[in-house]
Amino acid sequence: KRRPCILHCPRSETYRMSKNQAFSLKAILRTRLVDEILASNRKQDPYMVLVLDPHTSKIISSCCKMSDLLERGFVAIQNIKNARQSIDLPATYFLDVTGQDDDASGHNEDEKMLKALIEDFTEGKDWDPVTKTGKLLKKKYLRAYVHVTSTLQKTLIAKVLATERRFVASCRALNEINIDFLAYESRVFLLNQPYVLDTLMRSNTGGGMGESTRLIDRITKQLVSLCVMLNEKPYVRFEKPTSNSNCEKLLEMLASTNNFEAMLREATDKLPNWKPRPNPATLLFLNRTTDMAATLVHHIGYQSVLTNVLGMQGDVLRVEVDKKGGEGKEIKSYVMSEDDDIWARQRHKHFDAVKNELYAEMTAFKQKSLSQKVKEGDGLDMDPKTMLKVVKDIPKYREMARQFNKHNSILNAARAEINKPGRIQAMTMLQDLACGFDSTGSSVSPQSLWSAISELLAKPDTAYLDKMQLALLYVIARGGMTSKEEDFFESNLQPEMMTVIKGLSHLDINTKKPKNTYSVVRGHLDMMKARLTKIRNAKKIETEKEQDAKRKGQSFTKKAHYIGYRYLPKLHWVCSQLIEEKLDQKAYPWNNPPPKSGSRGMSRATGFSVRRNRHKRQQSGMGNGDKQRVIVFVLGGITPAEMASVYEIGDQYNVEIIIGSTDLITSEEIVKCLSQGEIKRDQDLNPAVIQDTNV
Q1: CA–CA gap between residue 62 and residue 315 (Å, rounded)
Q2: pLDDT band at 606, cuts 50/70/90?
């Protein structure tokens, strides 16, 4: 008996996390979205087609693999925007709707999406249902289970969906599921909104809903979907505007009670079974434009080098490597995901340390591997028991050898790019400008570095992006530029480069005669100097151990004690201050009153015991409900260095800290945004990047 098409919001449950299981956004999203929602009709329809759009396909791919979908009965994955043949199977649709259709401004994206949906069930223009004459088109699928990311406007349901009677007869469910974000890593989420800075700088407010206001509204809905899924009703803090920059004003609007909290309340009111965590998280809103240095510095972490130097796109990296046998080159495409154990462990470490530790791991693995001993003819006693062990060891040996070769090829490609003329010198000067001190700990000013910077900028073989990063960070650190410096830029840089430099004024950064030299906040500066001291001391101890090992004829593996690793993003200091309850409440005010307890993050703040009924809370789905959780959202993009900071802080303070943003951001994107259209988005500024068409 056919069930009617009903618009409803599915029951929200807390993700059940075992006592010893590490927090993972990917695992939570996979369970919530794929298991509980998309595959919820598996008993009635064990085999289905999954129909996605470009946005929802990224959401799905961020939390599961094709094999995960096949295990759950999805035998085919299709894009609703592509031409498709009919399949005699039910279809589960997961579609992106914004709830922002506005006739006044000409936005009708939701209507177009719904029309594409009902086209799969249309009877055809020539078919007359009364006389049953004409050509009757075949349905694409037997039945439809439709899930949308956000709230559907009721007028659209009546205007579009209800007009196609065959769709109404075929639709078994129409759900608003409140899931609209990507789980990029276990502690990182993205909203799939690239070039947000460009939109905010243009600040188009003409006709209907302005683009900036529409963007903030969409971001708010996406953040609400995250909080609903995590069962969070957070305490909100935000970075108070310090200038007239439109970006800072929009951040304040995003975090406002009338915006975020009102929308969260509206969403949870529709979910009668939804319950917030007993110990609410703190949601901190930060602005990208108040720490532009983090986007321009060459951080020396493995993930940062792959993103900024080799141009890794999301989690896909394409590099040119040697062919087997050493005969020529070939282009390889790698997915750098957390399923790769080496990547998960090494991505945040210093680039040079990764190579040293990878070599040490490879050597240790070969010494233990039975397959390697057989390969080298190590004289093993090949009795039946040993042969069985060797056979069982072969798959593991091949997989580890493949992973080692993959990362070794990537490291060699990255090292070749880093060793190009002027690159290491540029990296060092960028660190000096951002930190305000050099590798010895001595204070430096932008003016003292001008001679070396101008020399690099004048060289024709200095990379385009290196020149732009140096020029932009110099103007930011200098607090502007003198007429002499401006004349030098105009004489030695291309015309569009000057447009990029002057584009900083749209972020309320002075580009005229220097007024106030940019200075790092005292606490942030002290933290970076303490890090440098720790690195220098560890480096000294390591050198002594290395010399001692050489005297004894022993091998020695260097660790990640590198002076060039001294820079820390401002976000690192802000989050540390927040967790230690030292963050300035004037600069980062609360939106809703903070808890009265003196210990914000511990379970005492919520009025229940950490020990009492722990087992019952876990069984009921609360998981780590008594553990402190911090959610950080950066409007305008985050860098790999800031992602690495989150993992480091989480381990240091034993808290569940999650970072998210509109998208990943690189120095190349910053340059394109500041160029005000002179540099096109599809223009390649990094020659090391290998495009899809070459693969």
Answers
A1: 10
A2: very low
From 417, 416, 418, 413, select the one nearest 331 (Cα to Cα).
413
Question: CB atoms < 10 A from the CB of 479, how many?
Answer: 18
Backbone φ, ψ for residue 189 (5° rounding): -125, 150
Q: How buried is 346 (Cβ within 10 angstroms: 0-12 exposed, 13-18 middle, 19+ buried)?
A: buried
pLDDT at residue 634, as a whole number:
94
Contact 26, 338 (CB under 8 A): yes
Check: CB of residue 33 under 8 Å from CB of residue 59: yes
Residue listed under structure tokens 């020539």: 126
Q: Is the pLDDT of residue 364 over 90?
A: no
- In order, the DSSP letters of 505-520 are GGGT---SS--S----
DSSP code, position 596:
S
Chain length of the chain? 695
Reported as a pLDDT band with limits 50, 70 and 90, residue 559 is: low
Residue 13 — very low, low, confident or very high, per pLDDT cuts 50/70/90? very low
Nearest-5° angle of CA 410, CA 416, CA 417? Answer: 95
pLDDT at position 90, please?
A: 94
- Which residues is 173 bridged to in the sheet? 145
What does the alpha-carbon distance between residue 676 and residue 127 come to, in Å, rounded to a whole number? 51
Query: 317 in the Ramachandran plot: left (φ > 0), alpha (ψ -120 to 50) or beta?
Result: beta
Task: Count the alpha carbons within 13 Å of 117 in the hemisphere toward its beta carbon.
Answer: 36
pTM, whole model, 2 decimals?
A: 0.87
Which residue type sits at 265?
R
Per-residue burial over 368-388, b if 16 or more Cβ lie within 10 Å, else e, is ebbbbbbeeeeeeeeeeeeee
**Whole-angstrom distance, CA of residue 240 vs CA of residue 260:** 16
Q: Yes or no: say if 439 and 567 are a contact pair by the CB < 8 Å rule.
A: no
Show the tokens assigned to 479. 């607090």
CA distances from 366 to 349, 473, 636 (A): 23, 46, 45
Backbone angles phi, psi at 357, to 5 degrees: -70, -35
| Per-residue pLDDT, 605 | 40
pLDDT of 546 above 80: no
CA atoms of 504 and 198, how far apart (whole Å): 12
Strand partners, 317: 334
In the chain, % of residues over pLDDT 90:
38
Q: What is the residue type of 307?
A: T
CA-based max dimension of the chain = 98
Residue pair 662/639 in contact by the 8 Å Cβ criterion: no
| CA-based torsion, 292, 296, 298, 301: positive or negative | positive
